[in-house]
């Protein structure tokens, strides 16, 4: 069965994921340390760090088109190097580097909370935050992509406000001398500030859920880096222009940027900046904990860490042990309370991993001389070589300026190497019941010659078989028609930026009754079952509907329900928005043979379009069609009969004409007991009265004594909301 993740993330969401993880730590946590290392030249350092990040960012942008899997840098290096010691070191560095960076975010969060609520100690808040984030990740609480977008948008707005207002408060005298410690100070700051740009790699972990990832992700990476370079550079420059840099170092203040905001806007400005800092650090630590724990989880899945790291809780569907170990590392980093050493060690890990990502690109280019890629790094191999060179240069600068941090980093990497060669070969991996097979890579077959399709969304095992039999019968009579059963599995929102492999696989195995049913049709001619993993059922179904083919979508009827819920209903949205003929089918009494079809025919636009569907069904079952027309006055019968006789020429099957006087719904319900199937078209009244298909058709669907099919035929002009609204107002004015 074809399986795929639904592509719901657009350019804006991709940008917010990338920007949201890059914008916080430098401004809200490392500003004081940066001014201490480079003075006013910290703005140059953050600018150069961003430029250096572009080289590796380009490598990420191409690699996401080569390895379109969730996982990011570790996966790229592992795939390129064959999962050997180099891939292990990369994963080891990313795992511990992400975890240690969380210590910076927790300490920053504690500072901002202490600023607003001075009676709460910084360390208490930092520890509480780490514990809270750990439990949140263990519980598997769903995060909201929309909420993340809002938070990041608010942060950007606040920082731009700071920049715009701060321009008018700058004293350029504070910028002199611009580099009091020379360029060595700038390069030193550049080394640990580079770490604050690593967030752009996180969007690559969501590559299977991004719309047109080959185009969207490269653009998102480059645009987000450019935007963050501008914002960070401007904020750093304005900060050291508002107050002398000597007043912004850690020995003087724990909240340097808040001090500059107070200089601009008084206490309100300080509180506003502190609030922005709380949002930024909270968002960043949650993402970093997830990224770190899932990296160790992925390494265990690849048999590079003990199996317990990939153990997934049956109830919460989260890798609990991985999260706990990551949280312990974070608590240790918080307890150290040394921002400079922590940031330097983290940067060395990140620079090492990102150097290997550039190496991975070069290896893939050699392995695949003529790959099909939507994005290619310009000036290859110069660009990745520059990325490697810049990263190694920054590692050397950090080693010179902070020898203790270098020793710590080398010690941790050495411990990883010893573990790899001495401990790992002795481990026994319990693979029973745990799949190590990657999620299937899905490539859209856009160039293939697609046949006419009957798309059948299925979710209820009680109605699925009837829908499938109905669709198969229609397709069997048409050699050019394919039936596409679609099952949508909901996945949690917290997979936006991480590779929670086991959680996704468990979601894949959900609703076993329906999935087992669809598996029966794998390989059957004319059947193409599709399993989609998505956060949005409607979007997932719509991703299968193609405008150019005008397919028939068959959905099961579950009742009109309460009117107040109608506008959020999937059925209603399909009727309203789908560029396809949509049929709602209610099977009555389990009857699967339809030899007598009652078709209330009004002769209007929608009746004529619905007639095409009726003709297809009649051909499939060899059925006789009765055209029913209800008139208000008996004297109209003769004229209507003549019209129906001419209309009967549209059908390939035998036609019976029935004209009677009375009310349409009552007559249809009266005659329904004599027929196998009633087919009705949804008129222009559909949706106006907040019913599923319209007042009359809903009633027929609920109470008819045979199976019923309500068809909303697609018309590109009449489907427009404004056109439908205008027609409705016109009809209402005429009747008044």
Topology:
Elements: E1 2-5, H1 11-22, H2 25-28, H3 31-38, H4 42-66, H5 73-81, H6 85-116, H7 122-139, H8 145-166, H9 182-193, H10 213-242, H11 256-301, H12 320-336, H13 339-367, H14 382-401, H15 403-423, E2 452-457, H16 461-476, E3 481-490, H17 501-508, H18 512-519, E4 530-534, H19 537-542, E5 552-556, H20 570-577, E6 581-586, E7 596-600, H21 605-621, E8 624-631, H22 637-647, E9 655-661, H23 664-672, E10 677-681, H24 695-703, E11 707-712, H25 721-735
Parallel strand pairs: 1-4, 2-3, 2-5, 3-4, 5-6, 7-8, 7-10, 8-9, 10-11
Antiparallel strand pairs: 6-11
Helix pairs in contact: 1-8, 1-10, 3-9, 4-9, 4-10, 4-13, 4-14, 5-6, 5-13, 6-7, 6-11, 6-12, 6-13, 6-15, 7-11, 7-12, 8-10, 8-11, 9-14, 11-12, 13-14, 13-15, 14-15, 16-21, 23-24
Overall description:
There is one protein chain. Strand 5 (552-556), helix 20 (570-577) and strand 6 (581-586) form a beta-alpha-beta unit. The chain has an 11-stranded mixed beta sheet, sandwiched between helices. Helix 1 (11-22) crosses helix 8 (145-166), helix 1 (11-22) runs parallel beside helix 10 and helix 14 packs across helix 15 (403-423). The protein is elongated. By secondary structure, the protein is an alpha/beta fold. The longest helix is centred in the middle third of the chain and has 46 residues, at 256-301. The protein has helices spanning 11-22, 25-28, 31-38, 42-66, 73-81, 85-116, 122-139, 145-166, 182-193, 213-242, 256-301, 320-336, 339-367, 382-401, 403-423, 461-476, 501-508, 512-519, 537-542, 570-577, 605-621, 637-647, 664-672, 695-703, 721-735; strands spanning 2-5, 452-457, 481-490, 530-534, 552-556, 581-586, 596-600, 624-631, 655-661, 677-681, 707-712.
């Amino acid at each position: 069965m074809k399986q795929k993740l639904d592509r719901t993330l657009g350019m804006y969401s991709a940008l917010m994921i990338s920007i949201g993880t890059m914008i916080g730590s430098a401004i809200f946590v490392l500003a004081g340390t940066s001014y201490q290392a480079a003075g006013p030249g910290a703005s140059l350092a953050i600018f150069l760090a961003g430029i250096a990040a572009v080289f590796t960012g380009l490598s990420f942008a191409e690699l996401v088109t080569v390895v379109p899997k969730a996982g990011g840098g570790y996966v790229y290096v592992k795939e390129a190097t064959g999962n050997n010691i180099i891939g292990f070191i990369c994963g080891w560095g990313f795992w511990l580097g992400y975890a240690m960076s969380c210590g910076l975010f927790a300490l920053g969060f504690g500072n901002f909370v202490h600023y607003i609520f001075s009676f709460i100690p910084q360390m208490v808040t930092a520890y509480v935050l780490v514990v809270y984030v750990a439990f949140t990740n263990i519980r598997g609480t769903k995060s909201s992509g929309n909420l993340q977008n809002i938070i990041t948008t608010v942060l950007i707005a606040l920082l731009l406000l700071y920049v715009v207002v701060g321009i008018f408060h700058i004293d350029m005298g504070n910028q002199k001398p611009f580099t009091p410690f020379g360029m060595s100070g700038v390069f030193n700051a550049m080394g640990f500030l580079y770490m604050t740009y690593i967030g752009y790699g996180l969007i690559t972990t969501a590559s299977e859920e991004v719309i047109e990832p080959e185009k969207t992700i490269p653009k998102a990476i480059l645009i987000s880096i450019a935007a963050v370079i501008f914002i960070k550079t401007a904020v750093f420059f304005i900060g050291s222009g508002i107050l002398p840099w000597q007043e912004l170092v850690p020995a003087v203040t724990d909240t340097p940027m808040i001090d500059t905001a107070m200089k601009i806007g008084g206490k309100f400005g300080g509180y506003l900046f502190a609030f922005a800092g709380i949002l930024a650090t909270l968002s960043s630590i949650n993402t970093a904990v997830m990224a770190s724990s899932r990296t160790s989880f992925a390494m265990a899945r690849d048999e590079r860490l003990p199996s317990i790291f990939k153990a997934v809780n049956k109830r919460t569907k989260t890798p609990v042990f991985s999260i706990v170990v990551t949280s312990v590392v974070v608590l240790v980093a918080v307890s150290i309370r040394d921002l400079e050493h922590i940031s330097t060690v983290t940067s060395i890990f990140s620079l090492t991993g990102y150097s290997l990502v550039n190496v991975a690109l070069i290896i893939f280019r050699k392995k695949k001389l003529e790959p099909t890629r939507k994005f290619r790094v310009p000036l290859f191999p110069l660009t990745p070589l520059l990325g490697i060179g810049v990263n190694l240069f920054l590692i050397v600068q950090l080693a010179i300026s902070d020898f203790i941090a270098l020793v710590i980093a080398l010690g941790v990497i050495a411990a990883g190497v010893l573990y790899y060669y001495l401990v790992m070969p002795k481990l026994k991996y319990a693979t029973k019941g745990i799949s190590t097979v990657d999620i299937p890579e899905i490539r859209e077959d856009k160039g293939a010659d697609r046949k006419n399709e009957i798309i059948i969304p299925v979710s209820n095992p009680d109605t699925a078989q009837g829908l499938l039999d109905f669709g198969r019968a229609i397709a069997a009579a048409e050699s050019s028609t394919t039936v596409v059963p679609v099952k949508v599995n909901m996945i949690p929102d917290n997979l936006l930026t991480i590779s929670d492999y086991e959680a996704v696989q468990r979601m894949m195995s959900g609703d076993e009754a329906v999935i087992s049913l669809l598996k029966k049709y794998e390989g059957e001619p004319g059947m193409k079952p599709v399993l989609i993993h998505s956060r949005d059922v409607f979007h997932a179904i719509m991703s299968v509907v193609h405008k150019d083919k005008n397919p028939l979508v068959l959905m099961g009827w579950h009742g009109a329900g309460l009117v107040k819920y109608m506008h959020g209903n999937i059925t209603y949205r399909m009727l309203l928005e789908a560029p396809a003929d949509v049929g709602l089918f209610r099977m009555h009494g389990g009857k699967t043979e339809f030899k007598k079809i009652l078709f209330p025919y009004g002769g209007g636009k929608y009746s004529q379009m619905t007639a095409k569907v009726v003709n297809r069904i009649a051909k499939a079952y060899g059925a006789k069609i009765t055209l029913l027309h209800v008139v208000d006055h008996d004297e109209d019968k003769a004229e209507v009969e003549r019209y129906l006789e001419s209309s009967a020429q549209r059908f390939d099957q035998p036609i019976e004409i029935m004209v009677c006087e009375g009310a349409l719904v009552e007559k249809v319900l009266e005659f329904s007991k004599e027929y196998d199937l009633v087919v009705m078209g949804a008129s222009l009244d559909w949706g106006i009265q907040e019913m599923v298909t319209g007042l009359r058709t809903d009633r027929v669907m609920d109470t008819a004594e045979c199976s019923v099919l309500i068809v909303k035929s697609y018309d590109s002009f009449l489907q427009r909301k404004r056109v439908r609204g205008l027609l409705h107002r016109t009809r209402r004015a005429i009747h008044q």
